[in-house]
Design goal:
about 750 residues; alpha+beta; Rossmann fold; eight-stranded antiparallel sheet
Length: about 750
């Protein structure tokens, strides 16, 4: 009973069985491969319980049987059904077949599905190998191709992306007025490439470092499925907002005094006399070309001095000095009285509403006339005490150190009137006086501390730069641990040079400093792009139209203030015909990148108190780039004037050289009309320009194509001689017409 039950279970042909049948039947499917041999055909079946069963179609006892050998060449079409439990079952053969086909089965394992071949249900227990193979081929046809697999994978990938989009987290993103693409992507937790793509859809081409306005950033944020929250500029800058200190915390501080006046009137000499130093000897050309800050201490009374340049190019420096000071000392030479920079300094002082002390210098000279100085000051609404005014004036001689004590007394008196106080027990705030790049120390900035106490390791932000105070150095070169109000110090810790006039604020942490610096930088870039783009486009448009000529310049200076002054001075030389274009300005030595920039822009390089590194010199020599070195600013300005003068279109004047009368007109075929003439005045030259006068009216202006005397071509014909003249591209001449010859003279112009 158990045996019959077992027989009713459906049988399935295993993979090894199918392979073995293929092997034995051959390509035709009708007869076994290798007909004539005595191989047995091993068929492996598999039931639902995954139990393998085997049988052999050959007789088990064929050895030595002549009857088997005689029938071995006959094709075998019918197979005996498997006999379960047969003791003659060939396990060895089955094992060999499994081992032989193991590699094939492993190779196809990932591609072949589980066989779905059904047993033959025709009422018999015999299996037809041909039908099995046909069924197998149908099974193979169901296997997907490589392209189909790829399409399925892409479909799954898109489905996964859709699911990711559906499950995407919507974030609240704070949008300041100015934000970079990279920062926006980070706040949304999106890829930078996705943000760039979203911008492209909106018609905005931008890279990762480009700054975006708040409106554009908000549109991108909404496009990517996030919620934009606008942040006001005040919210970012609130962390560095200044506040008034309680009067109980205020202490007296030293006055900050700025020395101003015309060039060579003795400003630095007065400072030398106070400091007992020789600063002026170190200045190129005997003039101050950058802001210096110093502090003196006489009998416990401190005064901070700021020395400004007097040259016209340093107007911005004087303006900054006036804004950062408590008192202005206006130096006027007794033998020279008021000059342009003196008047300008007065205007800066009035604009800043800073009290003035008049120092009438060079009283030791024979031509000194202090009364003239006082009277000239009246024209600028400056009334000194000796003329019943309120402004203090002192007659001094910096060279002889005369009356310097009176000048110092006047400073302290004015400081007492102002009641200068500050809170030293708070975070420091100040202003950048000057910045420079030094070898071995990097970017160094001179900072005037206005409030609080600046300490080493303080985190600060200055303009669009931020850093950590690494060292504090006073004007004597001494290292300090802290700097109190009204003290000028050199600060080390900047990554790059800050701009003179920028604020200097100590903050709580690096994150705050970085956030504020990045915001200021992005805002500055937006403004620069808006202004610069329009200016550059306008300039190039004029250049392309031939309206103006451009002079590209790269400026490298020793300090930031000098670079700024040079830029302002040479750009002011531009007019409607010539344009000075400052491609780049910076601080420090001239590098290879500067040479490469000059090469690409067809410009030249200005080095002010700096030199080019060896690699830059080699590159400049190779690319034929002109590098000009200067140490005195007015020499630089004069050279730029001459260079611009060469770009100006020259002045053209005319000089009449001859008067020729047409006596006869000869018409020659294929040549044209030739005028038979006589020179009545001057001479006629082959290279001269001519005018045709008819009844004293100019009817034509042109040139001569041929000038002959008799039959010979000549260069010129003098007064009283006859000649033949043929005009270029003009033949409407008559007897009695006058040919007036003239030369054009070009004269170069200067600014």
């Amino acid at each position: 009973m158990e045996k019959n039950k077992d027989k009713k279970k459906p049988l399935k042909l295993s993979s090894s069985g199918r392979l073995q049948i293929r092997k034995n039947l051959g390509p035709t499917g009708n007869k076994p491969r290798g007909t004539g041999n005595k191989k047995t055909i091993q068929i492996v079946f598999k039931n639902k319980n995954n139990q393998q069963k085997s049988s052999s179609t050959a007789q088990s006892n064929f050895r030595g049987s002549s009857s088997f050998r005689s029938q071995s060449n006959r094709p075998q079409t019918n197979f005996a059904p498997p006999k379960f439990g047969n003791n003659n079952f060939n396990t060895k053969t089955n094992k060999s077949f499994d081992n032989k086909n193991k590699k094939i089965q492993d190779a196809k394992k990932t591609h072949q599905k589980k066989s779905t071949l059904k047993p033959i249900e025709d009422g018999s227990t015999k299996i037809d190998p041909k039908k099995i193979l046909e069924q197998e081929e149908q099974e193979y046809d169901k296997f997907p191709s490589l392209a189909k697999i790829k399409r399925a994978r892409e479909k799954e990938k898109l489905k996964a992306q859709d699911n990711e989009t559906e499950n995407k987290i919507s974030r609240e993103v704070s949008i300041p007025e100015i934000i970079t693409v990279q920062d926006l992507a980070n706040r949304m937790s999106e890829k930078t490439a996705d943000v760039v793509k979203a911008l492209m859809k909106l018609g905005v081409m931008a890279n990762a470092t480009q700054a975006l306005e708040a409106d554009t950033a908000e549109l991108v944020t909404n496009e990517l499925g996030h919620k934009a929250i606008r942040v006001n500029e005040d919210d970012i800058l609130k962390e560095i907002e200044d506040h008034e200190d309680d009067e109980s915390f205020l202490e007296n501080r030293a006055p900050v005094v700025t020395i101003m006046g015309h060039v060579d009137h003795g400003k630095t000499s007065i400072l030398d006399a106070f400091r007992s130093s020789n600063v002026v000897a170190g200045e190129s050309g005997g003039i101050t070309q950058h802001i210096g800050a110093y502090q003196i201490n006489n009998n416990g009374k401190k005064i901070t001095f700021i020395d400004t340049p007097g040259h016209a190019a340093f107007s911005n420096m004087r303006a900054r000095g006036a804004k950062t000071t408590d008192i202005i000392i206006l130096v006027v030479a007794a033998d020279d009285s008021l000059k342009p920079q003196t008047i300008e300094s007065i205007a800066h002082a009035k604009a800043a509403k800073v009290p003035i002390i008049i120092a009438i210098n060079k009283m030791d000279l024979p031509g000194a006339n202090p009364d003239k100085v006082r009277n000239d000051l009246l024209t600028q609404e400056i009334v000194v005490e000796k003329l019943s005014g309120e402004i203090l004036d002192v007659e001094i001689s910096a060279l002889k150190k005369q009356n310097l004590d009176k000048l110092e007394e006047a400073i302290h008196l004015q400081a007492d009137i102002l009641n200068l106080k500050s809170n030293p027990n708070r975070t420091a705030r100040g202003v950048i006086i000057e910045s420079k790049l030094e070898k071995g120390r990097g970017s160094v900035a001179t900072v005037l501390v206005q409030k609080g106490t600046l300490k080493v390791s303080d985190i600060f932000v200055s303009g669009s730069e931020w850093g950590k105070v690494k060292a504090l150095i006073n004007d004597k070169g001494e290292n300090l641990k802290e700097a109190t109000p009204s003290m000028p110090v050199e600060v080390l810790g900047f990554d790059s040079n800050p701009f003179a006039g920028d604020d200097f604020i100590v903050v709580e942490s690096e994150s705050v400093a970085r956030k504020i610096a990045e915001f200021r930088f992005s805002k500055k870039q937006i403004q620069k792009n808006k202004v610069g783009k329009s200016n550059v486009e306008e300039m190039f448009q004029k250049i392309s139209q031939g309206k103006i000529s451009s002079l590209p310049v790269i400026i490298k200076a020793d300090v930031q203030g000098s670079a700024e002054a040079i830029e302002n001075s040479i750009t002011n030389l531009s007019n409607d015909e010539v344009q000075v274009s400052v491609i780049h300005k910076g601080v420090g030595a001239i590098t290879e990148s500067d040479v490469a920039l000059a090469n690409s822009s067809n410009g030249f390089i200005i080095g002010f108190n700096v030199r080019a590194i060896p690699q830059a010199r080699d590159a400049a020599k190779r690319d034929n780039i002109n590098i000009k070195y200067y140490s005195i600013i007015y020499e630089l300005i004069d050279d730029i004037k001459n260079s611009l003068g060469g770009l100006l279109s020259p002045d053209i004047s005319e000089k009449i050289t001859g008067n020729v009368e047409i006596r006869e007109v000869f018409n020659i075929s294929k040549v044209g009309n030739i005028a038979g003439c006589i020179v009545k005045e001057g001479m006629i030259s082959r290279s001269s320009q001519v005018r045709i006068l008819r009844d004293n009216v100019v009817i034509h202006t042109g040139s001569i194509s041929s000038l002959k005397r008799f039959k010979e071509e000549v260069k010129e014909v003098k007064n009283g001689y006859e000649c033949g003249v043929m005009l270029e591209n003009y033949s409407d001449i008559k007897v009695g017409d006058i040919i007036e010859t003239f030369d054009q003279i070009k004269t170069s112009r200067k600014l």
